Amino acid sequence: MIAELGLAALWMAAALAALQLIAGALALRPQGAALRGVIRPVAMMQGVLVALAFAALIWLFVTTDLSVKLVAENSHSAKPMIFKIAGAWGNHEGSMLLWVTIMSLGGAFVALVEKRLAEDTLIATLAGQAFVSLGFYAFLLLSSNPFERLPQPAPEGAGLNPLLQDIGLAFHPPTLYVGYVGLSIAFSFAVGALVTRDVGPAFARAMRPWVLGAWIFLTLGITAGSYWAYYTLGWGGWWFWDPVENASLMPWLAATALLHSVSVLAARNALRAWTVMLGVVAFSMSMVGTFLVRSGILTSVHAFAVDPTRGSFILILLAIYIGGALLLFGLRASTVTEGARFAFVSREASLVFNNVMLCGILGIVLVGTLYPLLTEAFGVKVSVGPPYFNPVSAIFAFPMIVVMAVGPLLRWKDDGARRVAPVLAIPALVALGGAGAAFAAHVALLPALGLGLGGGLAVASLLPLRGRNLRRTPLPTWGMVISHFGLAVALLGMASEAAFSIEKLAALNPGESRQVGPYALSLDRIDPVAGPNWTALQATVSARYAGGAPVVLNPQARTFANPPGTRTESALLTRWNGQLYVVLGEEGEDGRWQMRFWWKPFVPLIWLGGLLVGFGGLLALIGRVARDVKRLVAVDKIAFRRERQGR
Amino acid sequence: MSAIKAKHQRLVLLVIALAALVGAGLLAAWALSKQASYFYVPSDLVAHPPEQGRAVRLGGMVEKGSIRTMPDGVTIHFIVGDGKARVPVRFSGITPDLFVEGSGVVAEGRMEGQTFVADNLLAKHDEKYVPREMKDMTSAQAKAVVADTK
Fold this sequence. Notes:
Shape of chain B: elongated
Distance between the termini of chain A: 57 Å
Oligomer: heterodimer
Radius of gyration of chain B: 22 Å
Number of domains of chain B: 2
Number of helices of chain A: 18
Number of helices of chain B: 4
Helix content of chain A: 55-70%
Order of helices and strands of chain B: HEHEEEEEEHH
């Protein structure tokens, strides 16, 4: 019954999306003015219905209704409750329902709170959002129905892939999806603005909080995903340039560029066409990512079921939306009037430079990700990994970081290099000193440059606060400073991990020990342990820092029964100056246990930096929204007074 | 500020952006030709050996009775074959759970002398998660290898 209700709600939501699109298209004509009032309520109702459908799916997983195909194939009655709930989106159909849910709730949210956008543009935007949603409704209902019943209820569920049975599953996919799908709102804004030819500072100010919101979630989702891969894979790495990771990085790069160009548009009425273009590109990258991940052309824990029809379905959607938006852009871009001018040395110019650098990195990552698929079509199998991505993206990333240090100190419109040069002397010295010292210590080129630039940027990113009254500094300025500082922190963590990690591989008898960096590690014993739905071998390892008191670590090798599978559970010891990472391997024929140890100095800075970047974004968002609310209240008051005076 | 017209400024920006993107594309193409790691089956590897030290992937079957553990307990030597040719492989590290003799494997690494030194081994994980290269290998023997392991 619940499954049928969920399905019915989904169909009704799809019908409302169709209505929203048609009414929106008609309402923009003079004859259709009567329809203007229905758009917002329809968008909100659509959101409510999809939320109901999503709640129905969660209910089916919580109660483990084995007559539903999706539940029987992906859940198990003996699974811990948190994984029953999170397991609802740990599969293809459920995750697509999550996608559509976020997309429709996003549209509903826009309909509910967006007050700044010109009414015509808002109608075009909501119609655009409905148009995009319709494609995904069709995909869900026609090829990936999450509510399909089995002819006979299954006696027991097949369970969830052990790699996914982790608390990360509860947070990482929803966060990332809010980011991906949040960009659909930026896309619809761009399409709406192209339809009404209304691209200007007011439009940019209305669009900015939505871009910022999506970007914050993307940042946090990528940071969380990286940490999850780091501790769960047991390979000691935090980024593998895996196509699935690239699929999340590409929208982030585009959204970062968009976030900065939309600020230029809002403040200076420049970069009009470019901003609209980035709005289209950012969500296109989300969809390319979905296509890569869900079409089955990649094999990964993220590619749930290989079904070629689904791949072609997403490809068609991709062609319609990206192609359509680019066509609209091509037709309308020349009618978007030119923006304001700016000099070669100015805030705008630095933002343009970094926009281009971000797009360069985006291009590099896109080409590297698609290249293996392309060559495979010609029967040549290749894989592209860090030896390509690291140096080639660094060619664009490092100049970008230099300009990031300078840009926020420059004035809008026109500025002189001489004015800011003295201020930048300190960060420049830090950068040169850091890189030089790293070279002297025989650190490789890229990590050495990373250490220098990270140090320099960390100092330079704080400079916009100098001479300011910190209490009166607006929140968006704080946000920018903290985000830029966070990026410097993350860069320092990445460079330090690459430069100074120590890895030891050893086969140990219980009682034996090894020195890893500053730690003496001894394997005390190996015990069998049991969890709710797994059994494991657990090592007890004591770690002594420079002869101090021992700290116990318990890495495990877990075995799951439903479905059968194994997973290594690494043990981490976090200290202010780094992380100790211990993995338990197999028992050798001679009874020794394989152990893998890493000492990674300052590696947590990578994720701390990512959190800071997201936190800075949040501060900026709060600052912007608070200002908007204040303005709206003021406008209301004036209108109220006028009304009273008029009487 | 010079008297550039807004229209000219837009043109200059467009040219710079295009130049940067074309540059990125060319750079990517050049780097890919240098850095992409090709996939080999043992007979290809023996017939057309890649440059020493260049990152490549080797896929085939772990020969029965070929895994030998070195005295350090963590380095193994084994032979990857495809029925036509055999390549000795060395690997230091924790092997994946389904890495067993007589089963398929993809090794990421490079040729050093006559030995393939692997940095990483990908084994057939389970029915759902097969390394992409093992799903449809280019040569017929390799397909047979995968069929054997099922």
